[in-house]
Amino acid sequence: MDQSIAFARHVQEIVSAAEGKQTTRDPEVVQSWLRCLNDYKLDPEHKGEARILPQNILRQHQQEAEDLMTIARFGMEDLYRRVNSMGYVLLLTDAKGVTVDFIGDEKVDRELKRAGLYIGSEWSEQNAGTCGVGACLTSGEAIVVHQTDHFDMAHTPLSCTAAPIYHSDGSLIGVLDVSLLMSPTEKYSQALTLEVVKSCVRRIELANLMNSRKSDWILRLNRTSEFLGVDPSCAISVASDGTISGLTHGAHQLFSKAQGVRKFSAQSFVGKPFEEVFDFDFNDIPCLLAAETPGEQALELSDGQVIFADVQAPLRRERAPARSVLPKPLAGIHGGDASMQILAEKAARIVDKQISIILEGETGVGKEYVAKALHASRKKKGPFVAINCAALPEALIESELFGYAPNSFTGANAKGKKGLIEQANGGTLFLDEIGDMPLVLQARLLRVLAEKEVMPVGATKPVPVDIRVISASHRKLKSLVDAGQFRQDLYYRLNGVVLSIPALRDRTDKPWVIRQIAALVSEGSVMRFSKPAEEALLAHDWPGNIREMINVFELCLALSNDGVVGIEDLPENLIPQ
Ligand SMILES: Nc1ncnc2c1ncn2[C@@H]1O[C@H](COP(=O)(O)OP(=O)(O)OP(=O)(O)O)[C@@H](O)[C@H]1O
């Protein structure tokens, strides 16, 4: 047919379609023509040249699309091996329609370049009119734009089949297009090509999801159980908190249909709880790993539709909780010593549980300090009551601990008195030097802990108490039990978890401890040490631990000039000979 007649007919067809007249064109092609006329104000009589971007601008697009190019390259090469003998070329464009990667036959390089089937060509609908890439980007769906489907007469020799590529977060990131310079007249000749391109993109998206979500559960999904393991139709990833962290476009379409969502909305399923989409408990996903029959792989979608799932467990464990996730008071008990860090992490795991804790360590290492940090880290705090079992006078110990009823003995307060255990109700009871508690009192304490109530001296009715107990001892309680000085049954009740605080001489964070205690003693004002003084502090073995350090620093502060402590200000036993 004469070129000018063909051109006139093409323009005429577009105009009459725009007027709403009957047409045999596919509706998505007509919709694109209408966008070209009405939205982009393109002129069907104008013959545009294919636009190839200059190198520097192309490079910018390629840099921004680096991830997409890496994701898609293996799929493109595989696809090209299958279709190149039929004359197809492959284009990968970014979300703006710029060809950032290209595979074609070098023998017809010049013709391809002229036709715009080339690296750097720009195929947005606004620029090139109806074309495979442009219509695909605008609609978000795969499409064949065959010969005179093209809006611009310059492109009507081409046949273009394009499928959108979606990121696992749901956003449209590019288009994979296969095009022919010369093709059979009938459009249905490209029906199989469309399926091949869609399947290639499906595998690209799946590989991307599996690669980028290694710490999550991956569920490969199919409507039938056959081919589920080898060629699933779509997939999702689920994070450890039970929310959907990523999905392929096929999964997006499946869920949208199940939930009656018509309008395409990119991110609508990412971040949603797994149970909102499936009628299945997230915590039961591991059970699917052991599925042996298709029936055991079947899941129900929210609309009752059955879908089969092939599950892959997280390949990479999420990193262990960093120090910063410890409750603040516990994170602040050391300055980087490894055994203190382990202690803090262990304590953080049990801090809100009904588990008794024993703190062991030499005198002055900071057992009460750590007990207070434990208490301060609890969600439900209540009061903190400390009892030094070694310092209580024997005669008063019972009434101090358990309290007494009004007028229960001579000299007692007429109103009675709440004991320390009752004062700790709803909070923490810290029993310091528990190893020094007399045996008779140990029996009574055991009853309090077992029955969760105290019987004040002279009272007839017990008082219920809810306390968490932290005990401390500078001697190993187990050896006291072996020596018959501590009740075994009480030891077992107190001994939920033992936390051993290292001696100061064994800690690797001594410079941090020095700074802490200097600030404590000087109450925030200046207290610094000369280099030789600091070296002497670091070399000392601190038998009295942190308490000894506090005493030494108080003395130094009093002797020093303007808060700067020299070696001569240190006590004699600290000065190297
Ligand atoms: N990390 C720290 N920062 C500041 N001060 C601390 C720290 N650790 C302990 N202290 C202080 O050191 C002193 C001794 O600590 P604590 O009384 O907790 O030790 P203890 O092991 O319970 O001693 P004892 O065995 O004699 O009962 C206290 O004044 C405490 O406040």
Automatic annotation (TrEMBL):
Keyword ATP-binding: yes
GO process terms (BP): phosphorelay signal transduction system; regulation of DNA-templated transcription
Keyword Calcium found: no
Keywords: Activator, ATP-binding, DNA-binding, Nucleotide-binding, Transcription, Transcription regulation, Two-component regulatory system
Family matches, as PROSITE patterns: SIGMA54_INTERACT_1, SIGMA54_INTERACT_2, SIGMA54_INTERACT_4
InterPro entries the record matches: AAA+_ATPase (IPR003593), AAA_lid_NorR (IPR058031), GAF (IPR003018), GAF-like_dom_sf (IPR029016), P-loop_NTPase (IPR027417), Sigma_54_int (IPR002078), Sigma_54_int_dom_ATP-bd_1 (IPR025662), Sigma_54_int_dom_ATP-bd_2 (IPR025943)
Domain Sigma-54 factor interaction per the UniProt entry, residue ranges: 333-558
GO molecular function terms noted in the UniProt entry: ATP binding; DNA binding
CDD domains tied to this protein: AAA
Function (record text): Required for activation of most nif operons, which are directly involved in nitrogen fixation.
Complexes and interactors: Interacts with sigma-54.
Protein name: Nif-specific regulatory protein
